[in-house]
Amino acid sequence: MKITKVNNSFPFASLQNTS
What we know:
Layout: H1 4-7, H2 13-18
């Protein structure tokens, strides 16, 4: 899952980025 752009808005998205 690519949530790099969302990572800026959501801090927790960083965890999903690893998934």
